[in-house]
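User: tokens in, sequence out, please.
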């Protein structure tokens, strides 16, 4: 589906030949991962490739044939998660386009998504520019969701491809040991500085007021920190107790994800010197 000249969505559920229920547990009802075809006069790139699914792959390759963009210069995997890079190896095999990611994602992608059967042959660096002919994509390193997560910015259009760093339908999951809440906060501020006109996100539709959305996400993270500290005001508590105090009325399928958010928030507060833990319970310093 064409979103604007040279920018197309190849998202499952939007392709004419492929319609699926949206989401997988524990995200029932959650929009599918977005995939974008971006091209200028000389070259094109694919930003993310969705799940490793044969029917999705067939639909995407058919769409590429129908649109007939300039040569595909790269299949860019914005981060290591299978809903964004799982389909990349099949697209690489069918198109011959090189696979690209940030260096910090390479090992995880090759191991977990490709099973050792494929290789990232282009490592993208912060500030690097991809000239597509009349349209340039700038690589923006956006750590937080994962260490090597990247966004792509088409400055001429004011179009920012944020992947899961910004979504139109929810906040972003930061898994402890993989992501960093401190990095995520700094990334949101950096994205604000780009002054994008439109954000094409990892899940959900385009955001046409990026400043408001980014301010809302920054404010949300600040409120969650305050809620954690307030919940600890009465004394030490476990992660489960903190989650029950903060995430009220949460469906059981989302509790594990909320626990991860709590732990990531606590890790940031511990690094800031505001909380401590004894291996089981957390307390204010």
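Assistant: Sequence out:
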């Amino acid at each position: 589906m064409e979103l604007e000249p040279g920018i197309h969505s190849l998202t499952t559920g939007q392709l004419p030949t492929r319609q699926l229920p949206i989401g997988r547990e524990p995200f029932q009802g959650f929009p599918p991962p977005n995939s974008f075809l971006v091209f200028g006069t000389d070259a094109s790139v694919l930003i993310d490739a969705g799940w490793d699914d044969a029917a999705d792959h067939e639909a995407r390759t058919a769409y590429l044939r129908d649109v007939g963009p300039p040569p595909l210069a790269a299949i860019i995997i914005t981060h290591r998660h299978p809903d964004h890079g799982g389909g990349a190896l099949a697209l690489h095999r069918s198109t011959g386009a090189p696979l690209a990611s940030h260096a910090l994602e390479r090992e995880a992608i090759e191991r977990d998504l490709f099973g050792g059967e494929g290789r990232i042959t282009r490592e993208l660096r912060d500030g690097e520019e991809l000239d597509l002919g009349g349209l340039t994509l700038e690589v923006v390193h956006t750590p937080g969701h994962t260490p090597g997560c990247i966004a792509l910015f088409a400055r001429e259009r004011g179009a920012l491809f944020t992947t899961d760093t910004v979504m139109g339908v929810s906040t972003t999951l930061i898994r402890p040991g993989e992501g960093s809440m401190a990095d995520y906060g700094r990334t949101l501020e950096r994205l604000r500085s780009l002054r994008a006109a439109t954000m094409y996100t990892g899940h959900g539709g385009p955001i046409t007021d990026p400043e408001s959305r980014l301010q809302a996400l920054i404010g949300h993270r600040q409120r969650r920190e305050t809620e954690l500290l307030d919940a600890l005001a009465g004394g030490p508590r476990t992660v489960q107790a903190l989650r029950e105090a903060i995430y009220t009325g949460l469906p059981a399928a989302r509790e594990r994800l909320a626990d991860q958010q709590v732990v990531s928030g606590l890790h940031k507060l511990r690094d800031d010197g505001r909380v401590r833990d004894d291996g089981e319970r957390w307390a204010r310093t």
